[in-house]
Design goal:
The complex is a heterodimer. In chain A, the strands form 6 sheets. In chain A, strands 1, 4, 5, 6, 8, 9, 10, 11 and 12 form a 9-stranded mixed beta sheet that branches. Chain A has 2 domains: 263 residues, Spore Coat Polysaccharide Biosynthesis Protein SpsA, Chain A (Alpha-Beta Complex); 84 residues, UDP N-Acetylglucosamine Acyltransferase, domain 1 (3 Solenoid). In chain A, helix 3 crosses helix 6. Chain A is elongated. Chain A is of the alpha/beta class. Chain B is an alpha/beta fold. In chain B, strands 1, 4, 5, 8, 10, 11, 12, 13 and 14 form a 9-stranded mixed beta sheet that branches. Chain B has a 6-stranded parallel beta sheet with strand order 16-19-22-25-28-31, with no helix packed on it. In chain B, a hairpin with a 5-residue loop joins strand 11 and strand 12. In chain B, helix 3 packs across helix 6. Chain B is globular and about 65 Å long. Classes of the chains: A alpha/beta, B alpha/beta. At the A-B interface, strand 14, strand 15, strand 16 and strand 19 of A face strand 16, strand 17, strand 18 and strand 21 of B.
Chain lengths: 373, 394
């Protein structure tokens, strides 16, 4: 039993994901053939022994709630602790919609005070990685820091005008932090995972709210770094990680998962990734099919040609249909004679007979949920 | 006190299934993998949950470890309930007496206390040997409508095969007038499926009497059913005409897997109204590499194919390396077919490894089997019909 709890904030900005996040939070975005973005983080937390996880929901949280259910798939349905869904709610002091993570934590002050764990891992939900969280936690406890922030040096995680970047001294101390800079000045990208004592976070939130602050990093942690009276450390995560913040980023992540060496790092045997189970039979391949460099989930029926693609559960590829560099979410259908390339089909989308859809690889076509083309 | 249940199911899962050879050396027959992601027991358990029967006792005795772990708390079949659910029932000590299950009827007799907790009106007896989708609730309605004391599910088999089964002769009202176990001259082609519904009061009386009869072999087919017939109890035959496959031998297990590769599938496993549930290991989707060829096959999550797979069933976490060929084969969870190996008309059991360049099975002839966790060395050949286990030398 770990004396650590987790809180996942799922209210990140998602405008560049276009139709993909029209009806859902990034956390609920389907990825890698059978998962949702949040599964990786949630599984990392659970795999290191955390048994109390709060998921703060902000908007479009229906599909996220539907996915998480009772938390059973992550073994988070115990009598003590487990999974807590924390959607916004109205009270006299509470305006409903959160205007940032500080507000969200303040609204859920009861949950924070009622929880018993000494430490709290606070996470965002728009990044995909599969970390040994216990190493991170142990490092924090051993170092005696007030806060430890997880970062990566992967250049692919840097964005102009977006993200939080850390200046990390040789001793692991964070000496500066920038939020949404025009160009990041530091190679260390904050992964929106930090650990601190639960009571410490509560005091930060109380102070922040009293001063009208909304952004934890810029308004609260940065002044602490500058004042130098708190010990704020950084811990480097060296595995693969992705920031799912645009259609292009989503597409690139998907194509990366087709690489066998990447998959073995994202799905190591000792860190399984749990997700909601849908009892589908194994995928069925017809007699004259071509399927290369693709990930195929259960319940698919493949009778056409599939290249460099990811097929989620229950996808049908008809005879003479050809799909290349595509991501086809749950129950999508590509009818006979159709050719599609560089497309992302949201759930239950249908490509009709003999249709041709070719997107530029730098700007894949997104077919929204339930659309028939 | 438990709430009353109309019908409680008892699943006889204690048999070794010795005709499955080395495949049941380490696991009980109901735990044998089938169809890419299932185990045989998933079919009766899913049928129960889909039929609205939520209280199931699973009687185990032979190699129960894997079966127990597989069933767990029953959540995979929605059988994790406060009132009812799935229970594994091994033999246990009662006072000074403790004994193994001596026969199918004795196994139920020894668990009468379990059944009594629910005060059921009816008891459904199942076995873990067959692949089929069946609505037990329809059969129960039939049983109630006919005011039967016992109802036996039957299916029509080809006349020439009838002498291999327990055969029921019936009258026009589906009453069983004669039961013959493997008759030389069958009077009917209605064969018992090993699925029975009994009115519990009646069955309890017969089980108690059967137990007192020292000459009885305590078996449903040999003792209970003939005795009830002789006593002119109301015995009905319930016709079932769906897919039903006995998977009690290596050949029939292989065939039942191959059945899933024909179009249309003789048993529809895509049916959303009658899902077959299974415990899933939680792997990522399967991966078909560049240069791989897959046709006419079933492949499931966690597998990686770099070679050639044709008309085969691959279970979770199977690897087929580059240049390997898998044809007309069943490859069970975690098995690895190494570079350049050729597997034909075979069953490769869980976590077995077929070494580089080896040959297992042949284009024709009997099915070859590589046992659980067996490592077939590089460059050897395993002929048709051969079963490879720890003692096999190359």
């Amino acid at each position: 039993m770990k004396d650590v709890m987790g809180v996942i904030y799922t209210g990140e900005s998602d405008s560049r994901l276009r139709e993909l996040t029209m009806l859902r939070a990034i956390a609920a975005l389907p990825v890698a053939g059978r998962y949702r973005v949040i599964d990786f983080l949630l599984s990392s937390l659970v795999n290191c022994g955390i048994r109390n996880v709060g998921v703060i929901m902000q908007k479009n949280y229906h599909s996220l709630m539907d996915h998480l259910g009772s938390g059973k798939e992550w073994d988070l349905h115990g009598k003590h602790d487990g999974l807590y869904m924390l959607p916004p709610f109205l009270t006299r002091e509470n305006m409903g919609v959160f205007s940032g993570i500080v507000d969200a934590l303040r609204s859920n002050a009861n949950y924070l005070s009622r929880s018993k764990q000494e430490y709290l891992v606070l996470c965002g939900s728009s990044m995909i990685f599969n970390a040994h969280m216990d190493e991170f936690i142990q490092h924090h406890i051993d170092s005696g820091a007030d806060i430890t922030m997880m970062y990566t040096k992967l250049p692919s995680m840097q964005r102009d005008e977006y993200g939080t970047y850390l200046a990390v001294a040789e001793d692991g101390k964070v000496t500066d932090l920038e939020v949404d800079p025009t160009h990041p000045s530091y190679p260390a990208t904050f992964m929106h995972v930090s650990i601190m004592k639960r009571e410490f976070l509560r005091s930060l939130v109380d102070k922040g709210v009293a001063h009208g602050q909304h952004d934890l990093n810029r308004d609260i942690i940065l002044p602490m770094i500058q004042a130098g009276h708190a010990k704020i450390n950084a811990w480097e995560y060296t595995g693969p990680a992705w920031r799912i913040d645009s259609v292009q980023a989503y597409f690139n992540f998907s194509m990366d998962v087709l690489k066998t060496d990447i998959r073995s790092q994202l799905f190591p045997e000792d860190l399984p990734v749990y997700t909601k189970v849908r009892d589908e039979m194994p995928a069925r391949y017809g007699d004259n099919v071509t399927c290369i460099n693709s990930l195929v989930a259960d319940g698919c029926i493949i009778e056409g040609t599939v290249e460099n693609s990811i097929l989620f559960r229950g996808v049908r590829v008809a005879p003479d249909a050809h799909i290349k560099n595509c991501i086809i979410m749950q129950d999508g259908q590509v009818h006979s004679g159709a050719y599609i390339e560089n497309c992302i089909l949201d759930k239950q989308a249908v490509i009709k007979r003999n249709a041709r859809l070719i997107g530029p690889s730098a700007y894949p076509i997104v077919i929204a949920k339930n659309v028939v083309t | 006190m438990m709430r009353k249940k109309t019908c409680v199911a008892m699943l006889l899962a204690g048999g070794q299934g010795s005709r499955l050879g080395i495949l049941t050396k380490q696991v009980a027959k109901p735990a044998v993998p089938y169809g890419g992601k299932y185990r045989i027991i998933d079919f009766p358990l899913s049928n129960c949950t889909n039929s609205g029967i939520d209280t199931v006792g699973v009687l185990t005795q032979y190699q129960p470890l894997e079966l127990n772990a597989y069933i767990g708390n029953g959540a995979s079949w929605d059988l994790d309930m406060n009132n009812g659910g799935v229970f594994v029932l091994p033999p246990y000590q009662k006072g000074k007496v403790g004994e193994w299950y001596r026969g199918t009827a004795n196994a139920i007799y020894q668990n009468m206390a379990f059944i009594e907790q629910y005060h059921p009106d009816y008891v459904l007896i199942l076995s873990g040997d067959h692949i089929y989708k069946m609505d037990y609730n329809k059969m129960l309605n039939f049983h109630v409508r006919h005011g039967a004391d016992a109802t036996i599910a039957v299916r029509e088999v080809p006349w020439e095969e009838a002498s291999r089964f327990g055969i029921m002769a019936t009258d026009a009202d589906d009453n069983i007038i004669e039961f013959a176990e493997k008759p030389k001259q069958p009077k009917s082609n209605k064969a018992s499926m090993g699925v029975y519904i009994f009115t519990w009061e009646k069955l309890r009386a017969y089980l108690t009497a059967d137990e007192a009869d020292k000459s009885s072999s305590n078996d449903f087919g040999k003792n209970i059913i003939p005795k009830m017939l002789a006593d002119k109890q109301v015995m009905c035959a319930y016709m079932f005409d769906g897919y039903w496959k006995d998977v009690g031998t290596i050949e029939s297990l292989w065939e039942a897997n191959m059945d899933l590769l024909s179009t249309p599938m003789p048993i529809d496993l895509h049916d959303k109204k009658w899902r077959i549930y299974a415990r899933t290991p939680g792997y990522p989707p399967h991966y078909i590499a560049k240069g791989a060829t897959v046709s006419g096959s079933l492949v499931t999550e966690g597998s990686q194919v770099f070679g050639h797979v044709e008309h085969s069933v691959l279970f979770a976490g199977v690897t087929v390396e580059e240049g390997a060929e898998v044809i007309d084969a069943v490859v069970m969870p975690g098995a690895v077919i190494k570079r350049g190996a050729v597997v034909r008309r075979s069953i490769i059991a869980e976590n077995a490894i077929v070494g580089p360049g080896s040959f297992v099975g042949e284009e024709t002839g009997n099915i070859a089997v590589v046992g659980h966790g067996i490592n077939v060395p590089a460059g050897v050949s395993v002929k048709a019909g051969v079963q490879v286990d720890e003692e096999t030398t190359f």
